[in-house]
Amino acid sequence: FNRKLWVLSIDLSIFSGSNYDNKSSLNMKQESIIKIMARLTVISTFAIISTQCLMIYTTIIYELCTYTVCNEYDEYFIYKPIADGFWGIDCFINCLCIYLSFDFKSTKQLYYGACC
Hints:
mainly alpha
């Protein structure tokens, strides 16, 4: 995705008449937007993948339990609490991804905000 954004910016610089070989063909605003888009793309992809893995695992376990008795003596019963634990981990990952999608002025500010 990021590579396609870079190629698009080079194509746009060609049409605008600027030299696309020049490393400063993007102005500061465009570079900051590309960095933000790249960060949000990576964070969103990580959140989506974790949720999809949880949904696939949970669906398989609950389908197995639907077609069997799935009482506490069943072999699939031990996988249900694991699915619940993965759900908690997925919620934490999604909250962390939302938190990281915001800008921070400095790491000191992040540290002081978390500590105090």
